[in-house]
Specification:
CATH class of the largest domain: Alpha Beta
Number of helices: 15
Number of strands: 15
CATH superfamily of the largest domain: HAD superfamily/HAD-like
Strand content: 15-25%
CATH architecture of the largest domain: 3-Layer(aba) Sandwich
Length: about 425
């Protein structure tokens, strides 16, 4: 019950008590007795039972859910969790370990090392995990990187820059096509094959010609498939949103038996899909990265963080670029203008911890329904005699003491019933 409706209930209770008291005074009831009639109706019609009927079970549920495996922000989130019917995964970092590694290098008219070196030179200052993976792989192999200039990271597309006077792009196939880059039929066929097996193809081009593909792969965390299967048994519709190609996410969908997967989505596209689901009446939970998916987590009904994760520690990378050793310290950039998003549900025990949390929340919803019945029955039993409905049949008014005892009994029943949330 929100604050506005509670005010309405209290106002209605006062009005009802006042109207019935005036009626009985006009019918000849002594004013002293009328005061007790007013008090009895006020107590019998009090909204406290209906107010606590829903609050107590979900408050209890949030206390039960809070554990070493799950952290929940409030009883309000426990209520939202009881209605959860759609769960969206941001693919990288949730359905995968968010530690991509190179699985295939497919060059054209150059060596694998030269292709990786060119891509890593552009990706040296990349913020995206894929770009960092290319840079670290080249560094680990001891490849000599080239000087670059005018590098620019384009969200949802890739990185571009100038190398030896040529415009070099490292990123998605759709981006290169949009830029009118010439791509051979062999590379397009290889792209389809890699994506079909769930790998992430990254194209490398120089000038107006594609030079090859570097494919990356990311492991699926152990136990994830079992957790998704249990969620589906609870009737939760599972979806994956990603900027990777539709072929790549289809492979992940098939492996994990997800209900739905949508690829080639920009951040705005993901946000639009979430809003459409909410307009359709779905209660949407979103599991994503607190940094890159903050806007999506805020848009969902329940924004969730999935841990433990593999975070890369601050490290110093010494890279030889054109014979010059340079030191790079990786730092996490924060935008002070955007407040950090605090997850409403933190799954510290992995995705499997979400299943018992949903079960507890749904139990609380059923107990809240039972409590509501108790509250309405209290009104039904106490209000008519308090208002004098049975006086004309030889009965008497319900005293204020009995009204108070009736309301107190209902509150005790509601409290004890709420403790059954476990």
């Amino acid at each position: 019950m929100n604050k506005l409706s509670l005010k309405h209930f209290i106002a209605a209770d006062f009005i009802l008590a006042a109207v019935m008291t005036v009626y009985w005074i006009s019918a000849g009831t002594p004013q002293d007795d009328a005061a007790f009639i007013f008090l009895s109706i006020l107590i019998a019609g009090s909204p406290f039972s209906i107010m606590l009927a829903e609050f107590l079970p979900f408050w209890r549920a949030s206390a039960v859910i809070e554990s070493d495996d799950v952290s929940i922000s409030s009883s309000k989130i426990a209520k939202e969790l009881s209605f959860l019917d759609t769960l969206i995964f941001s693919k990288n970092g949730t359905l995968t370990e968010n530690a991509p590694y190179i699985s295939d290098i497919v060059p054209e008219a150059m060596t694998q090392g030269a292709l990786l070196s060119l891509a890593a030179s552009i990706e040296r200052d990349a913020k995206h995990k894929i770009g960092k993976a290319l840079f670290y792989a080249a560094n680990a192999r001891g490849l000599r990187l080239q000087r670059t200039s005018a590098t620019n990271e384009i969200e949802g597309c890739g990185m571009e820059g100038i190398v030896a006077g040529n415009s070099v792009r490292v990123g998605r196939l759709s981006w290169l096509k949009k830029e009118k880059i010439e791509i051979s039929a062999e590379l397009l066929t290889k792209n389809d094959q890699l994506a079909f097996h769930g790998k992430i193809p990254v194209f490398v081009s120089s000038g107006k010609r594609a030079l090859g593909i570097i494919a990356l792969e990311d492991h699926i965390p152990p136990g994830l498939m079992t957790a998704i299967r249990r969620l589906k048994k609870l009737g939760v519709h599972t979806m994956a949103f990603t900027g990777d190609s539709q072929r790549t996410v289809n492979a992940v969908k098939k492996e994990l038996h997800l209900d739905e997967a949508k690829g080639d989505l920009t951040r705005e596209g993901k946000l639009r899909e979430i809003k459409l689901l909410k307009v359709a009446g779905k209660t949407v939970g979103m599991i994503g990265d607190l940094g890159s998916d903050q806007m999506l987590l805020e848009a969902a009904d329940i924004g969730m963080e999935l841990i433990p994760k593999k975070y890369e520690p601050l490290r110093k990378n010494i890279v030889e670029v054109a014979g010059i050793e340079e030191e790079e310290e990786e730092k996490k950039e924060e935008n002070p203008l955007i407040p950090p998003f605090l997850p409403e549900l933190t799954l510290k025990g992995g995705l499997a911890a979400l299943v018992p949390a949903i079960e507890v929340a749904r139990r609380a919803k059923e107990i809240a329904r039972q409590n509501t019945i108790i509250a309405y029955l209290t009104w039904l039993l106490l209000l008519p005699p308090a208002m004098g409905f049975f006086v004309s049949f030889g009965g008497d008014f319900l005293s204020a003491d009995i009204s108070l005892m009736g309301v107190a009994t209902s509150l005790v029943l509601i409290f004890l019933n709420s403790l059954r949330t476990h």
